[in-house]
From TrEMBL, chain B:
<keyword id="KW-0479">Metal-binding</keyword>
<dbReference type="InterPro" id="IPR012748">
    <property type="entry name" value="Rieske-like_NirD"/>
</dbReference>
<keyword id="KW-0408">Iron</keyword>
<protein>
    <submittedName>
        <fullName>Nitrite reductase small subunit NirD</fullName>
    </submittedName>
</protein>
<dbReference type="Pfam" id="PF13806">
    <property type="entry name" value="Rieske_2"/>
</dbReference>
<keyword id="KW-0001">2Fe-2S</keyword>
<dbReference type="InterPro" id="IPR017941">
    <property type="entry name" value="Rieske_2Fe-2S"/>
</dbReference>
<dbReference type="InterPro" id="IPR036922">
    <property type="entry name" value="Rieske_2Fe-2S_sf"/>
</dbReference>
<keyword id="KW-0560">Oxidoreductase</keyword>
<feature type="domain" description="Rieske">
    <location>
        <begin position="6"/>
        <end position="102"/>
    </location>
</feature>
<keyword id="KW-0534">Nitrate assimilation</keyword>
<keyword id="KW-0411">Iron-sulfur</keyword>
Length: 833, 117
């Protein structure tokens, strides 16, 4: 407040008003002027410079304009009359080129010079252009102003393919608009989750699924390498993995940057944005700044809500009634019609944070509220955002929610309903004919009489009256009824898969197939997982179940794999790995042995050991050396031995009839055939096979998961043996006459085990649990062996693809390489690995 | 200020739900994590239990499960969770304009911190 006031109140005629020059005719600049006018209309002569040749409009409504839901006229905020009525000079289409702070004036592109007493910079932000080849081609546009929208509409008029780079708020709105305008739209997003700044994995997955249902192609985890042109015009987008997507228009919507160029050149303090204090004053007291171009208390905002608060504080300040701006808590809604999505605050979780998750698969709802020390810290809502503003309000006010904690996730109507705040009380208040389970049409009265009839656990209720036995979304209600009816007498049911779900392994396996669930986030949504992204127990299990259920379709999720299966080697106590190449049936040759010997020397492996499964284990290999080790072993014809996996390990053999004087059949040959058929298959747990050439059983086939004992008249097939913690001899499954029958039965048994057992259940405890007769019956049914064997062989065609070869060729190289190495000499310098 | 922070490269070099390692010559190897909730953390790559390489564990929420004996370690505090007791040193990390920075003094002094913990 250093502009001298020469006159007292009332401003007699002849008073010279201060000159306020505003750079930027956008939402922030005009709002600031409106706020000032509302407080003191006579204080300033206002001149507004706008680079765009038009009046001020609501930029956030460009998406509906693109989508054809609004016209430009409908999104104009201030018409020409507003400027005229308030005596504001609008200089549109003339960009300010420089600020001359010394003489307090600005210079525009046309040469126009405008002196000021107060200058307001409201230049907003610029779209960020990723520096890829082809970024300047004709047909590459951003999504920032009406000109961009016009370009997109022109392209849409020609039809064809559009690519949107960036799956954030703006990119998805652009994609939605172009899709509605009839284009085939592909969204390319660098991160694995759409709108990852606003959404967690679960909500991002729901959004992706919905957009795909609407016909958009969504590529996440995709890195743009180049925009390919033809005759100077955009023709396609090429990704880092080589994929090429045809495009007649490319919309670059990867983010925005505060437009600070003018301020920086004028010598104002600028970091990421133009530095302002709580009154929106820059490092020059005569220069103010507001909107997306500023940095306030370390924050730059790209949303509209903070503008209003900034403009209020700015107007209060220049009219000498300073109040100050203290930063904003922001929330986001996606403006895509038919998709309800809300996110606010901090949803990343953390120390002392508690996630309250509610999923309703039938309505497509996912809600997650993050609570810390009895306060709402953040919320992500998908499918039902009615309570978004309520959560946002609780969050902004920092209200103590301990009283409504139990019912918080059900929303305002429920939580503020007094007695209803206790879910049990709410269930107690339901009438007897109220429907509890929609899937099976079970009423409260039926559930209660079922409980009174002796069903004292969730599982018993499910099997008796079917309530909560299908989609499971009413599990909580049934549990409340159990508690209400029995008091503390509820029996705990069978062990659930993990703390993230109320379902057992068996339930989950069954539901994956019945409901055709094909991705981990989809299972978590449909089966009402109570955590956002599962845990170290359920993720590997779900990954296996999906791999087993959808061979060839499901894409293995590396981050849900235990370290050994992710690194394709066995981790040792010192963090190095051991490597076991496959030796078919325990056979080897000079070439393989030389290659192993060479690897041992080349990589200084401190130990080589013969394993119990008849092969060689090379110890002490560093994770970054693994691909090179594998390349050398591959070169000698060897592939992964899967000694690290919940998978087929080895087929141990004895020498059999070819050499042994007691041998009855070619056990070595059969072992090799079996190993060729079964290698590479993922299983619920590790799986070992052996083939002995006679009942002396030198290959120890009767303590294996599947054992063959050759006899004169054929082959005895044994199952479910174990030589581990609890030794268990096999059970005889059957006896067959030919090698082919033995192979078919082996394939069928493995597939039945793969489809029936729980994750981390070896064949021995599985058979103990389900009973030998159950397995025998399943395989004895008409056509069962052919059926299961065929399914196994189908699955195997996708599995018998050496993981070592792929890694040696560079797949997932980030898993092996260090980020860099730090060498802490003075002035430590980084060396990229 | 910039001199106090060590730029270790873009956020995109670590896939969400995974970690990568940063050996320090004469110091403790550091594991840099990117969670599925899109947060970044850096801790010394040694489980307080038996020095397992935490970078190789399964990441869920802001927790990593050690690959050797399934201890759960908070990436935020470095503390062992549940009934287990122990703590691994954390390294202050910030993300700015798409790049990851570690506090230089904590990286270089990794050894001292490890002993202090």
């Amino acid at each position: 407040m250093n502009a001298p006031m020469n006159f007292e109140e009332g401003r007699p005629a002849g008073h010279v008003r201060e000159r306020l020059v505003v750079i930027g005719n956008g939402m922030a600049g005009c709002r600031a002027v409106e706020e000032i006018l509302a407080r003191d209309p006579g204080r300033f002569d206002v001149t507004i410079f706008g680079a765009e040749p038009r009046v001020n409009y609501n930029r956030i409504m460009l998406s509906p304009v693109l989508a054809g839901e609004k016209t430009f006229d409908e999104i104009v905020i201030n018409t020409q009359e507003w400027y005229d009525d308030n005596g504001i000079t609008l200089v549109s289409g003339d960009k300010v080129e420089s600020i001359d702070r010394e003489h307090k004036r600005v210079v525009a592109a046309s040469g126009r010079i405008e002196p000021y007493d107060k200058l307001l910079i409201a230049t907003g932000s610029d779209p960020f252009i990723i520096p890829v080849p082809g970024k300047d081609l004709d047909g590459v546009v951003t999504f920032r102003d009406l000109d961009d929208v016009d370009k997109m509409l022109a392209a849409a008029g020609q039809g064809g393919n559009a690519v949107v780079i960036g799956g954030g708020l703006l990119g998805l709105e652009a994609a939605h608009g172009l899709n509605l305008r009839g284009m085939d739209v592909t969204v390319i997003h660098l991160m694995p989750t759409l709108m990852e700044r606003q959404l967690d994995e679960a909500a991002g997955w729901l959004l992706k699924t919905e957009l795909e249902r609407r016909g958009q192609t969504i590529l996440t985890g995709a890195n743009t390498k180049e925009i390919v042109g033809k005759d100077g015009k955009v023709a396609a987008v090429r990704l880092e993995d080589g994929t090429e997507i045809p495009a007649s228009i490319v919309v670059m919507a990867v983010g925005i940057r505060p437009a600070t160029g003018l301020a920086r050149e004028a010598g104002l303090d600028v970091e990421r944005g133009i530095m302002v204090d709580d009154h929106m004053v820059t490092s020059d007291p005569s220069v103010l700044a507001v909107g997306e171009c500023v940095q306030h208390r370390g924050m730059c905002y790209g949303l509209v809500a903070p503008l209003w608060d900034m403009c209020r504080a700015l107007a209060d300040h220049v009219t000498e009634n300073p109040t100050g701006y203290e930063g904003s808590v922001t929330s986001t809604k996606l403006k895509v019609s038919g998709i309800d999505l809300f996110s606010a605050g901090d949803f990343s979780g953390g120390e002392g944070c508690e996630d309250i998750v509610m999923r309703d698969a039938s309505r497509g709802v996912y809600k997650r509220v993050i609570v810390k020390e009895n306060k709402v810290l953040g919320a992500v809502l998908y499918g039902d955002t009615a309570d978004g503003s309520w959560y946002f309000d609780l969050m902004k006010k920092g209200e103590d929610v301990s009283d409504i904690r139990e019912a918080l996730i059900f929303g305002q109507a429920f939580a503020s309903g007094g007695a209803l705040a206790d879910p049990n009380a709410a269930v107690a208040a339901l009438s007897d004919d109220a429907e509890i389970c929609g899937c099976n049409g079970v009423s409260k009265g039926q559930v209660v009489s079922c409980i009174n009839g002796g069903a004292h656990s969730l599982d018993a209720v499910r099997s008796t009256c079917k309530a909560s036995a299908s989609c499971g979304s009413c599990t909580g209600l049934v549990e409340s009824l159990l508690a209400l009816t029995l008091g503390g007498e509820v029996e705990s049911g069978p062990k659930t898969m993990c703390k993230c779900t109320s379902f057992t392994h068996g339930d989950v396996r069954k539901l994956i197939v019945e409901k055709e669930l094909r991705e981990i986030p989809q299972i978590m949504q449909e089966l009402h997982w109570t955590t956002p992204d599962g845990c170290a127990s359920c993720r590997p299990a779900l990954n296996y179940y999906l791999l087993c259920a959808w061979p060839g379709e499901y894409e293995d999720d590396q981050k849900s794999r235990f370290v050994n299966e992710r690194m394709h080697a066995n981790i040792q106590k010192d963090g190095t790995y051991s490597v076991v190449p496959r030796m078919w049936g325990g056979l080897t040759n000079p070439k393989e042995l030389r290659a192993i010997a060479d690897v041992v020397e080349k990589f200084n492996a401190p130990m080589v050991k013969v394993t119990g499964g008849q092969r060689l284990d090379i110890f002490g290999i560093k994770k970054e050396d693994l691909p090179a080790v594998w390349a050398d072993l591959n070169a000698a014809g060897m592939v992964s031995g899967h000694a690290y996996g919940k998978s087929l390990r080895t087929v141990k053999t004895c020498v059999g009839s070819e050499w042994c004087r007691f041998g009855t059949q070619d056990s070595t040959g059969l072992g090799v055939q079996i190993e060729r058929m079964t290698w590479g298959s993922w299983m619920p747990h590790k799986f070992k096979i052996a083939v002995s050439g006679c009942p002396r059983n030198c290959a120890e086939a009767t303590i294996k998961d599947f054992g063959v004992v050759c006899v004169d008249s054929g082959y005895e097939l044994h199952i479910a043996g174990n030589g581990g913690i609890k030794v268990r001899a096999t059970d005889l499954l059957c006896k067959v006459e030919t090698e082919q029958e033995a192979m078919d039965m082996c394939a069928a048994f493995i597939q039945f085990y793969r489809e029936d057992a729980w994750y981390l259940e070896r064949t021995a405890p599985w058979v103990e649990r389900v009973g030998l007769q159950y397995v025998k019956d399943a395989l004895a049914a008409e056509g069962a062996v052919e059926h299961y064997a065929a399914r196994f062989r189908y699955s195997q065609q996708f599995m018998q693809d050496d993981p070592w070869a792929k890694r040696a060729a560079g797949e997932h190289e980030k898993l092996h390489q260090h980020l860099a190495e730090v060498r802490p000499f003075p002035g430590a310098k980084m060396e990229n690995a | 200020m910039i001199g106090n922070w060590l730029d270790i490269g873009p956020v995109t070099q670590i896939e969400p739900g995974t970690a990568r390692t940063l050996p320090v010559v004469g110091g403790e190897e550091i594991a840099v994590f990117h969670t599925m909730r899109n947060e970044f953390f850096a801790i010394v790559n040694k489980c307080p239990h038996k020095q397992g390489p935490l970078s190789q564990g399964i990441v869920h929420g802001d927790v990593v499960t050690c690959p050797l004996h399934n201890w759960n370690i908070s990436l935020r505090s470095g503390k062992a969770l549940g009934d287990d007791e122990g703590c691994v040193p954390t390294i202050p990390l910030k993300v700015d304009a798409g790049r990851i920075y570690l506090l230089r003094s904590a990286v270089i002094g990794g050894d001292d911190q490890a002993e202090a913990a």
